[in-house]
Fold:
Amino acid sequence: MKDLAAPAPKVETVKVEPASHTEASEPLVEPALAVEPAYAEPAKCVERAETVDDPRKFAPANALNAMKEKSKIGVETLRQQGVDFEGRAGICRGGAPKKNFFKVVMPLFFDQRDYITFSEIARYLVIQGGCCFVFLESTDPSPLYAFSLHELTAEIENLDKPDKASFTVNPISNTNKQHPSLVNVLLRNYGKEKELEYQIVLDTEKDKGIVKRFLDVVQRNSAAVVEATVQPTSSSKGAIKK
Structure:
């Protein structure tokens, strides 16, 4: 039995001694020192602040514009207050642009007149108290702009001899003359050498009395109204004759 392993030697039992008990050290925190109670002095009275410039200068533009929009009035509001005239009409501000070099030097090749369609300049006019409010439509909540009639004179344009500064509206083919149902009322500023301020285009096809009503209102609110004599021709059957 020489190949058998020798038995393991005997060993002593392991003994574990308990850890020695130590007392926890006390925290070294000093107590807070007593302090005096907080005391705030009341603010001193000062004089009322006053603005020295425009308070709207640095105000938000969107807020100012919103207030401005709310302050505008629409057609219905003007009607409730009473209007002198209202109706659809074409309007051009300041007349036609100045003629360019080619229109002046070569009129045979370049037409001297400026043409425009009625639909391009069609607006809704309301006159109240000597002020003309210009709306895009009768249902708009506010006007596009407004102008005073007090310094303006009015005259009906002779379609056969049109003003150099006016537009020809809805020209007829072959003749290039304005459609006879459209009447131009020229509003001039008598204080500026009768400079053309506005060209009002009134359609008499469905409303024959619109021109007279408009002129009557302008006459009551401006210095004078001058009606040009318009002789009816083959191209101006709807023109007005004084």
